[in-house]
Amino acid sequence: MSSALFPIQPEILQTSLPLHPWDNPRTANMPGVNMLDWDNWVLVDEAYRDQMALKERLLTEIPGAVLADGADAATSEHLDLVLERLKTTAGYEVGEGEVRCPDGRVVPTGGSPLLVAARLLQQDICIMERRGAEFVLAAAALCFPSNWRLSEKLNKPMTVIHEPVPKYSDQIARVVGLMFDKMRPDRPMWRMNFLLYANAELHQPNRLERANLETGRFIRCERQTLIKLPETGAIAFGIHTYVVPRAALSEAEFMKFWDKIKDHYGGKREISVPGA
After folding, report:
1. d(C-alpha 41, C-alpha 44), whole Å
2. How confident is the model at residue 274 (pLDDT cuts 50, 70, 90)?
3. Could you tell me which residues are beta bridge partners of residue 272?
């Protein structure tokens, strides 16, 4: 099933995953957060050109579904950090008022800071700001959602944002909120999730549908980064998406994945996956 918002998508795959998060003690259990090396914040992988071409189409054709501007001070601070990092990132050339990207596109750096960052980076971007007792989703460039719509989550607190996520309990929400408060700008973090899909579409806003061991054909992982912006105190949440065919794993590796994903979905043999 294709997204009703954007029905035709090319199949964009990586050939392998950088790690198997279900089989790594640092990432296998929620929240699974680790310290991030700044040199590994901005990633450019084999799917960069094709993913960025799809992002450009989404940002042009359905901007209201994938881009929510706001949090101007935080998004400006985030873009400044991005541009500084790209000066030392292979494949980018940062010039006066523009950036040449690894795929040859030249992106002007004026205008909406969030849109500029979205056009430069392979990762999606969510900006979380503290409002009252909780952090809320204040702005986002979300081209590759995994079973959620930006319009449904914007300006909502984390406890509401994660309502459909299995095992995201109130206790974990409190732990994550406390972690956000205690985060230091000089100590970014990362985590990685893992999902089973019946198709390879990157733009997946649809609700979960039933699938099983036989119909799940693609492994989708999100390498998520968390950076606390020093001036505004907002959290910049980056989402770098990997999609590989099930055949990229050996049968033994896939069964390890399956055993873990069953645990995440309450031990059921039939699990909910998008796009069946």
Report:
1. 10
2. very low
3. 210
Please state, in angstroms and rounded to a whole number, the distance separating the CA atoms of residues 76 and 107.
Answer: 16
Neighbours of 52 (CB within 10 A): 22
Q: Give the mean pLDDT of 151-169.
A: 70
The amino acid present at 40, given as its one-letter code, is N
**Rg (Cα) of the chain, in Å, rounded?**
18
Whose structure tokens read 């795929």? 103
Distance of CA 119 to the CA centre of its chain: 15
Amino acid, res. 19? L
Q: How far apart are CA 34 and CA 188, in angstroms?
A: 9
Closest to 177 (Cα-Cα) out of 158, 152, 162: 158
Is residue 192 within 8 A of residue 19, CB to CB? The reply is yes
Residue 73's H or E segment, with its range, is: helix 72-86
Tokens coding 195: 């999902």
CA–chain centroid gap for 273, Å, is: 17
Rounded to the nearest angstrom, the gap between the alpha carbon of residue 253 and the centroid of all alpha carbons in its chain is 24
Full strand arrangement of the beta sheet holding 134-141: 34-35, 189-197, 218-228, 235-245, 124-131, 134-141, 67-68
| Helix, strand, coil % over all residues of the chain, rounded to 5 | 30, 25, 45
86, 99 in Cβ contact below 8 A? yes
Indicate the SS3 state at residue 74: helix
Q: Is it true that the peptide bond before 31 is cis, omega within 30 degrees of 0? A: yes
CA distance 158 to 205: 18
Report the alpha-carbon distance of residue 254 to residue 249 in Å, rounded: 6
Q: What pLDDT, in 10s, does the model give residues 193-213?
A: 998 888 899 998 986 554 556
Q: pTM for the whole thing?
A: 0.89
Tallying the residues shown for the chain, one arrives at 276
